[in-house]
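Please check these two lines:
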Amino acid sequence: MKVFNTIYRGGQKIRNFILENDIHKLGNLLVQVYSGVLDRGFIYNILSELHQYLPDAIIVGATTTGEIIDGASQSDSVIISFSAFNSSQVAASVLIDGEISNVGCIVNKNTKMFLLLSAGIDVIPSELLTCLGHIAPSAIVVGGCAGDNDRLKESLIFHGKDIIGNGAVVVSISGESLFVKQFMKFNWEPMGSEMIITDSHMNIVRTINGYKVTDLYRYYFGGVTEDNLISISSVFPLMIKRGNMYISRILLDIDETTGSCHFSGIMNVGEHVVFGYANVDMLLDDAYLDGKVENHIESIWMFSCGGRKKILHKSIDQEIAAVSRIAPVSGFFTYGEYFTHEEGHHEVLNNTMTFVGISENPVPRQYILPRHQETSGPNLLDVSPRKIFQAITHFANTVTKERDDSYREMEQYAKDLDVKNSQLERLYMTDRLTGVYNRYKLDATLSELMKSYNRYGNVFSVVLGDVDKFKSINDRFGHNVGDAVLCKIAELIRSHVRDTDVFGRWGGEEFMLICSETRLEGAYEIAEKIRRIIEKNPFNDVGNVTASFGVSQCTDDDTVNVLVGRADKALYSAKNRGRNRVEREV
C-alpha cells in the first residue's frame, strides 16, 4: 500500500505532485478530497483536474469544519489523500433519497471496511448503517458527516466529479490480506442529574423531563445560551448511555415556533440523558494508545468532531500528533463520526475522535510512542482556552464530588421526584395498554385545533378507526391476545404517521388520528395507507386482522362533537359496506 497526502495549492502543483510520485501509474487508487472551501465551482474544478489526471481512480470527499493532515489541523484548506492498494479492491456507491439497494454491489466476502461520507444537515443514515451491518457484519464503518464550517446550512459530499448536497457515498475496501483496526477517543464526562426524554421522534426532541430542551439549557447554563445555544451544545452536549459506552448528541437546529430541537442522532422517548463536559486533561492524554498498536500500520484515516477543535483550539494538533507518530494521517473535522462499537452494529457519534489504522502488510510491530513535551516557556499573562477548560474541568469534578458526598440523599429524592412527575405526566396523557395517547390528550388536541380553525382558518381532519370483528377475536382467542392485537395495531399506526399528527386510542378497539393542516382527501389517503399496512401485517396466533376507517374535515360552525360525529357515521358506513375500507363523511 502506498499513501501520499498533500494540501491543494493549485492545478499545476497537484499535477506535478501526481507526476513526481508516479501516482498516475498506480492501480486500485482511492482519492479522498476534504475541503474547507465551500464554493461548488472551486470544488468542481479540483475534482475535474483529479479526474483528468487519474481517470481510473475512485474519487470521493466532503466539505468540512476543518481538515487534518499529517499531525496538524487546517482551516479553509483542501487536503487530498491518495491511497494505492497493492492487492485490495476499492469500490464505491452513491446513495440518494435514502436508496440503499445498490450497496450490495460493492461487497464481497473479503470486505473489511466501509468508508461512509454523508451530506445534509438532517441526514441520519440509520437504515444504511443497519444495512451495512447485515450484508457485511464483520466489516467496520468509518467516516463522517460532512461539515460546512459551523454554518449549519449546506454540507456536501463528492463522488467523481459529482457534488451532492443530500445523500451518502459508501466506499468498500476488500482484501484477504487487508488489516484494519479502529480506535475512538471520547473524553466527555457526565455532569448533573440524569433526565428522561419525554417527547421525541427520531432525532427531533420536543421535551426532556417535560420541559423544552431550550429551557433546560438556559436554566443550567444561563444567559450565554441566548444567542449561542447551538455552539454551547457542542461543548456541553447531551449524552446517552448505550451498552457500555456514552454517546454524545449535539444540537443542530431549533424550530422557534414549536421549540422542537433537531439533534445530530436518534434519541428515543424513555432514554436517559445527562449533560456532558470535556475532561481536557484526558483529551490530550495519549496513554490510550499504549500497547494497542501491535501491527505495522501504513495509513491512518481520522474523523474527529468539530466540537473537540472548539475546545482545544490549536492544542488539537497535540491530539492529532500523537496518532501521526504511528503512520501518515489524513481526514477531517465532522458533524458526526461513524464507528463500529461491536460486530455488525454501527453508530453515529459526536464529540469523538475516531481513526482507523490500515495496512496490507500487518507484520507484528510494537510502537513505542514518545510523550508530548511542552517546549515553550511560561507567559504569566497568557491564559489559553485549554487552561480555562482545565480549570472548568477541575471545578466541575470538585463540585460533583462535593455534591455526591454531602447531598446524595437530597439528589436522590429530587431525582425520584423528577422521574415520578415525568411518569405521572406521561400516564395522564397515555393509554395504559397501548402506550399511545389517550382520550384526554385527543380531546385536548381537538379542542385546541378547533379554536385555531375558528380563529385562523387552519384546516384539520379526523380519522376514526375501528378493528374489524374485534369481539370475535376476544371470544375465540381470549382477552390477552385481543390486547396484543390492539398494541400491535397501535404501534403500526404510530410508526407510519407524520410528526405533526396526533394519534391515540379513542376507546375500546377504536383509534383516532388527528391530521393538522390536512384536508379531507389528504386524510383519506393517510387512512387508506394505514388500512393497507394493517391488512398486510400478520398477527401472531390470529392471522390477518383488518380495520375500517371514517374520515371527516372541520367546517365552519363545527363543534368537536359534530366533527367527530361525522367521522363516526363514515366509520359506520365503512362497516356496513363490508369492513376493511375507508369512507369519507357525506
Summary: The CA atoms of residues 180 and 358 lie 5 Å apart. The chain has 15 helices and 33 strands. The two ends are 72 Å apart (CA to CA).
